[in-house]
Amino acid sequence: MPGIEVWSQFDHDPRSPVNARIRASDRDRAVIETVLGDAFAEGRLTRDEYDERAEAAIASRTLGDLVPLVEDLPVAQAPRAGTRSREEQALRKWESDRREALIGLIGLSALVWTIWAVTTPGGFPWPLFPMGAALMNLVRIIANRRDIIEEHVRHLEKKERKELRKREDEG
User: Fold this and answer.
1) Residue 19: helix, strand or coil by DSSP?
2) Quick check: helix, strand or coil at residue 25?
3) 30, 50, 158, 160: which could join 40 in a potential S-S bond, CB 3.0 to 4.6 Å?
4) Distance CA 117, CA 24 (A)
C-alpha cells in the first residue's frame, strides 16, 4: 500500500476542499475499498474496522466522505491542490512571465540593432525606442512581483470555483 499512488486514480482529488462536494463515483468508492482491503491484509485494520469503513465507503455520496475513511492510513497525504500549491503555481507563472520579458528584450534588441547596423550604421540610434519599451515591460514585471503573483492566485481560485460550480450543475 505505501508504494501505491492512490490519489492519482481519482478524476478529482478528494482531499482538495474544492472537490469535496463532488458526487463520488463507483470507481472512486472501489479505490477506497481497495485501500481498505490492503490495510486489512497488512494488519493495519481489524476485521470490524474494515467492515465498518467498507460499508461507509459503499454508502458515501461525495468525495469528501471518502477521505476520513483512509486518513489514518499511509496513503493519506496532504492535498496537492491546496493554497500552497496555488501560490507555487502563481510564482512559477510570474517567473515564466519574467523570463519571457527578458527573452523578448534580448531578442528584440538583437533584431533591431542588426537591422540598424545593416541599414543605417552610424545614423540615429532608433533601436533604443523599441528596446526602451521592452525594458519597461521587464521592469514592470519585476517591480510588481507580489501584485502579479496575487493576481495569478486569484485567477486560479476563480478557475477552481468555476469548475466546482460547473460540476455541481452537472451533478
Assistant:
1) coil
2) coil
3) 50
4) 65
Tell me which amino acid residue 144 is. Answer: N
**Beta strands in 107-170, from DSSP E residues, in sequence order:** none
- pTM given for the model: 0.49
Closest to 98 in 3D by CA, of 131, 133, 143, 132: 143
User: Residues 6 or more apart from 22 whose CB is under 8 A from it?
Assistant: 12, 14, 62, 63, 164, 167, 168, 171
Question: How many whole angstroms separate alpha carbon 138 and alpha carbon 131?
Answer: 11
Using DSSP, state whether 56 is helix, strand or coil.
helix
Per-residue pLDDT of the chain (171 residues; tens, 9 = 90+): 444 468 778 888 888 888 889 999 998 998 999 899 888 888 899 999 999 999 999 999 999 999 999 989 887 544 444 556 788 888 989 999 999 999 999 999 999 999 999 998 888 999 999 999 999 999 999 999 999 999 998 998 888 888 878 777 875
CB 149 within 8 A of CB 94: yes
8 Å CB contact between 12 and 168: no
Alpha-carbon gap, residue 13 to 56, rounded angstroms: 19
